Predict the structure.
Amino acid sequence: MQFHKFTSLAIITGVLLSGCSIVDRWVYRPDINQGNYVTTEAIDMLQVGQTKDQVVFIMGSPMLTSAFGDNVWYYVFRQQPQHDVVSQRTFAVYFNEMGIVTDIKANALEGSKSLEEMNKQGISDPIDDLKSDENNSENLPEQPSEPTE
Protein backbone atom coordinates (compact mmCIF):
# COMPACT_ATOMS: atom_id res chain seq x y z
CA MET A 1 0.00 0.00 0.00
CA GLN A 2 2.83 2.36 0.88
CA PHE A 3 4.43 1.59 -2.50
CA HIS A 4 1.27 2.62 -4.41
CA LYS A 5 1.07 5.95 -2.55
CA PHE A 6 4.72 6.70 -3.30
CA THR A 7 4.31 5.74 -6.97
CA SER A 8 1.17 7.87 -7.32
CA LEU A 9 2.88 10.82 -5.64
CA ALA A 10 5.93 10.46 -7.91
CA ILE A 11 3.76 10.38 -11.05
CA ILE A 12 1.70 13.41 -9.99
CA THR A 13 4.84 15.35 -9.04
CA GLY A 14 6.47 14.48 -12.36
CA VAL A 15 3.43 15.63 -14.34
CA LEU A 16 3.17 18.89 -12.41
CA LEU A 17 6.88 19.68 -12.72
CA SER A 18 6.91 18.99 -16.45
CA GLY A 19 4.98 22.23 -16.97
CA CYS A 20 7.51 24.40 -15.13
CA SER A 21 9.49 26.93 -17.13
CA ILE A 22 12.80 25.76 -15.67
CA VAL A 23 12.60 22.76 -17.96
CA ASP A 24 12.31 25.10 -20.95
CA ARG A 25 15.90 26.32 -20.45
CA TRP A 26 17.19 22.79 -20.85
CA VAL A 27 15.60 22.42 -24.27
CA TYR A 28 17.97 23.37 -27.09
CA ARG A 29 16.91 26.32 -29.22
CA PRO A 30 19.07 27.50 -32.10
CA ASP A 31 20.00 31.15 -32.49
CA ILE A 32 17.77 32.77 -35.10
CA ASN A 33 19.44 35.45 -37.22
CA GLN A 34 17.41 37.24 -39.88
CA GLY A 35 18.25 40.00 -42.32
CA ASN A 36 21.48 41.71 -43.26
CA TYR A 37 24.33 41.19 -40.81
CA VAL A 38 26.01 44.59 -40.86
CA THR A 39 29.49 44.84 -39.38
CA THR A 40 31.01 47.99 -37.91
CA GLU A 41 33.69 47.80 -40.62
CA ALA A 42 31.00 48.03 -43.31
CA ILE A 43 29.37 51.01 -41.59
CA ASP A 44 32.76 52.74 -41.31
CA MET A 45 33.34 52.25 -45.06
CA LEU A 46 29.95 53.77 -45.92
CA GLN A 47 30.16 57.50 -46.68
CA VAL A 48 27.98 60.31 -47.97
CA GLY A 49 28.62 60.80 -51.71
CA GLN A 50 28.88 57.11 -52.67
CA THR A 51 26.76 55.59 -55.42
CA LYS A 52 24.16 52.84 -55.07
CA ASP A 53 26.55 50.32 -56.63
CA GLN A 54 29.20 51.15 -54.03
CA VAL A 55 26.65 50.73 -51.23
CA VAL A 56 25.60 47.31 -52.58
CA PHE A 57 29.27 46.29 -52.77
CA ILE A 58 29.87 47.31 -49.14
CA MET A 59 26.58 46.40 -47.44
CA GLY A 60 24.96 43.89 -49.78
CA SER A 61 21.47 44.22 -51.21
CA PRO A 62 18.98 45.98 -48.94
CA MET A 63 16.29 44.08 -47.10
CA LEU A 64 13.70 46.81 -47.72
CA THR A 65 13.37 49.80 -49.98
CA SER A 66 11.14 52.81 -49.61
CA ALA A 67 7.53 52.32 -50.67
CA PHE A 68 7.56 55.74 -52.34
CA GLY A 69 10.55 55.25 -54.61
CA ASP A 70 14.01 53.76 -54.49
CA ASN A 71 15.61 56.60 -52.51
CA VAL A 72 15.77 54.91 -49.09
CA TRP A 73 17.31 51.50 -48.46
CA TYR A 74 16.84 49.69 -45.14
CA TYR A 75 19.26 47.14 -43.76
CA VAL A 76 17.58 45.25 -40.91
CA PHE A 77 19.24 42.64 -38.73
CA ARG A 78 17.21 40.77 -36.12
CA GLN A 79 18.79 38.31 -33.72
CA GLN A 80 17.06 35.97 -31.30
CA PRO A 81 19.59 34.15 -29.13
CA GLN A 82 18.50 30.82 -27.65
CA HIS A 83 16.61 31.97 -24.56
CA ASP A 84 17.47 35.68 -24.50
CA VAL A 85 15.69 38.83 -25.59
CA VAL A 86 15.30 39.59 -29.30
CA SER A 87 17.47 42.45 -30.55
CA GLN A 88 17.12 44.37 -33.79
CA ARG A 89 19.41 46.85 -35.56
CA THR A 90 18.30 48.93 -38.49
CA PHE A 91 20.33 51.12 -40.83
CA ALA A 92 18.78 53.41 -43.42
CA VAL A 93 20.72 54.78 -46.38
CA TYR A 94 19.16 57.81 -48.09
CA PHE A 95 19.86 58.68 -51.74
CA ASN A 96 19.13 61.73 -53.87
CA GLU A 97 17.58 61.57 -57.35
CA MET A 98 21.02 60.88 -58.88
CA GLY A 99 21.53 57.77 -56.71
CA ILE A 100 24.15 59.36 -54.44
CA VAL A 101 24.14 58.77 -50.66
CA THR A 102 22.92 61.86 -48.79
CA ASP A 103 22.43 60.48 -45.27
CA ILE A 104 22.98 57.34 -43.18
CA LYS A 105 20.96 56.65 -40.03
CA ALA A 106 21.30 53.89 -37.47
CA ASN A 107 18.21 52.47 -35.74
CA ALA A 108 16.02 54.11 -38.36
CA LEU A 109 12.88 52.13 -37.48
CA GLU A 110 13.22 52.50 -33.72
CA GLY A 111 10.17 54.75 -33.41
CA SER A 112 7.86 52.47 -35.40
CA LYS A 113 5.18 50.52 -33.57
CA SER A 114 3.89 47.03 -34.14
CA LEU A 115 0.17 46.40 -34.63
CA GLU A 116 0.12 44.74 -31.22
CA GLU A 117 1.42 47.91 -29.53
CA MET A 118 -1.03 50.05 -31.51
CA ASN A 119 -3.97 47.90 -30.37
CA LYS A 120 -2.86 48.21 -26.73
CA GLN A 121 -2.86 52.00 -27.09
CA GLY A 122 -6.27 52.03 -28.77
CA ILE A 123 -4.97 53.08 -32.20
CA SER A 124 -7.15 51.55 -34.90
CA ASP A 125 -5.85 49.61 -37.86
CA PRO A 126 -6.34 51.60 -41.11
CA ILE A 127 -7.36 48.45 -43.01
CA ASP A 128 -10.12 47.74 -40.48
CA ASP A 129 -11.29 51.35 -40.88
CA LEU A 130 -11.57 50.85 -44.65
CA LYS A 131 -13.54 47.63 -44.19
CA SER A 132 -15.99 49.31 -41.81
CA ASP A 133 -16.44 52.17 -44.31
CA GLU A 134 -17.35 49.64 -47.02
CA ASN A 135 -19.89 47.99 -44.69
CA ASN A 136 -21.52 51.36 -43.98
CA SER A 137 -22.03 52.17 -47.64
CA GLU A 138 -25.81 52.56 -47.16
CA ASN A 139 -25.11 55.96 -45.55
CA LEU A 140 -23.53 57.23 -48.77
CA PRO A 141 -25.60 59.17 -51.32
CA GLU A 142 -26.90 57.24 -54.29
CA GLN A 143 -24.79 57.14 -57.42
CA PRO A 144 -26.27 59.01 -60.37
CA SER A 145 -27.94 56.76 -62.90
CA GLU A 146 -26.70 56.35 -66.45
CA PRO A 147 -27.65 59.24 -68.71
CA THR A 148 -30.53 58.49 -71.03
CA GLU A 149 -30.73 59.73 -74.57
About this structure: Residues 29 and 39 are 25 Å apart (CA to CA).
